[in-house]
Write a structure and sequence with these properties.
The complex is a heterodimer of chains A (71) and B (267). Chain A is an alpha+beta fold and 71 residues long. Chain A has a single domain, classed as Alpha-Beta Plaits (2-Layer Sandwich), CATH 3.30.70. In chain A, 14% of the residues lie in helices and 30% in strands. In chain A, β2 (31-33) and β3 form a beta hairpin. Chain A is elongated and about 40 Å long. The N and C termini of chain A lie close together (10 Å). The longest helix of chain B has 16 residues, at 21-36. In chain B, α1 (21-36) packs across α7 (175-187), α4 packs across α5 and α5 (101-110) packs across α6. Chain B is an alpha/beta fold. In chain B, strands 2-1-3-4-8-7-10-9 form an eight-stranded mixed β-sheet, sandwiched between helices. Chain B has helices spanning 21-36, 55-58, 71-81, 93-99, 101-110, 155-162, 175-187, 201-207, 213-223, 230-234, 252-264, and strands at 43-47, 62-65, 86-92, 114-120, 123-124, 130-131, 166-171, 192-197, 224-226, 239-246. Classes of the chains: A alpha+beta (71), B alpha/beta (267). The A-B interface holds A 10, 14-15, 17-21, 24-25, 52, 54-61, 63 and B 1, 3, 7, 12-14, 16-24, 26-28, 30-31, 172, 175-176, 179, 201, 212-214, 217.
Chain lengths: 71, 267
């Protein structure tokens, strides 16, 4: 089976309220808070596409776009 | 973006506070409906009053925002009239079990095919942090500045005793588990109750020194355990998560149809 890979981790900054849940519970520490207290992905290469952040986000502000890794 | 297909985007960002568990329940519910491939026109969301009940306004299905505690009564009317629709009733703890306590037990007793999701944050958030029937003994609230002396209900035990044929509990920390529970509840033919333990960092968290949303999620992670786990034996204080009841009994609308058919015979 082709491996899934992160294509894009989009944060809707208008909707994000900076609660920090995605940052705390990301198993790979991909996200951080920026200076305006909004979540930003900073280590995209570490993302394992578990989509936990997307599901936990109380603001529906995270959208994970994945792609299949080329063989 | 798939989520946007299911919401009324014009009302976003939503009204809930930063880190509010109700947003996570909304998120999980959308994923479940997407996963089940349900037609948007076949879903009715009926809610009452409270922070949690705002959920009906955010979802782009047939929705009704009704009276405090009476969501299940409205939902019963809808379901009896249009039994082919999926009727889902998201409720807050106060809405479901204080103001709507009687509707709750009788909907359960009738076993009408409705999915009730109790978003239990153990407080009245919208009106300023008053204690609810699920706050429990020793909990601080704006109306219990020296701590509450009221014992709380156990939603799962109450629902099971009242006759609900599917009863489950999860939390906003265990999102994948919560999604499974809600999915099973929607598919179950009969009255289903899913309690989702949720966090209110603004009132419950602050009054009870439980910290922010992240701390409250960790607290739910650490104080709950799957049904029948060894950890429960060692620490009886742990709250169990999982499916408590899953049984089949005659469903109310089907039974009513049967009565109508019988009464019309020979006419």
């Amino acid at each position: 089976m082709p491996k899934r890979r992160l294509k894009e981790l989009c944060i809707n900054k208008e909707w994000c309220k900076g609660c920090g849940i995605c940052i705390e519970f990301c198993p790979k520490g991909v996200l951080e808070l920026d200076t305006q207290d909004k979540a930003v992905p900073v280590r995209n290469e570490d993302c394992v596409v578990c989509r936990l952040c997307e599901m936990l986000c109380p603001d529906l502000a995270i959208d994970i776009v994945e792609e299949e890794e080329a063989e | 973006m798939p989520v946007k297909d299911y919401i009324r985007e014009r009302f976003f960002p939503h009204i809930w506070c930063s880190g509010c568990g109700h947003g996570t329940v909304l998120n999980v519910l959308i994923r479940v409906i997407e996963r089940l491939g349900l037609n948007k026109s076949d879903i009715v969301i009926v809610s009452g009053i409270g922070c949690s009940s705002r959920i009906a306004g955010y979802l782009d299905f047939h929705t009704m925002h009704t009276l405090h505690g009476r969501a299940l009564a409205f939902a019963t009317g809808i379901k009896l009239n249009r039994p082919e629709l999926n009727v889902i009733v998201p409720m807050g703890d106060g809405d479901a079990l204080a103001i709507g306590g009687n509707h709750f037990i009788h909907a359960a007793r009738r076993n009408i095919d409705i999915t009730a999701i109790v978003m239990n944050n153990r407080i009245y958030g919208m009106t300023g942090g008053q204690y609810s029937p699920l706050s429990g003994y020793g909990i601080f609230a704006s109306t219990a500045p020296y701590s509450s002396v009221d014992q709380s209900f156990d939603v799962a035990e109450l629902a099971a005793a009242a006759g609900a044929t599917f009863v489950a509990r999860s939390t906003t920390y265990h999102v994948n588990e919560a999604a499974q529970m809600i999915q099973k509840a929607i598919l179950h033919k009969g009255f289903s109750v899913v309690e989702i333990m949720s966090q209110c960092p603004t009132y419950f968290g602050r009054k009870n020194r439980q910290g922010d949303a992240v701390d409250m999620l960790k607290y739910m992670r650490d104080t709950t355990t799957p049904i029948g786990s060894g950890a429960k034996g060692q620490n009886p204080e742990l709250i169990e998560r999982g499916v408590f009841v899953n049984k089949e009994l005659p469903e109310y609308c089907s039974a009513y149809d049967e009565v109508i058919r019988h009464a019309m015979e020979g006419r």
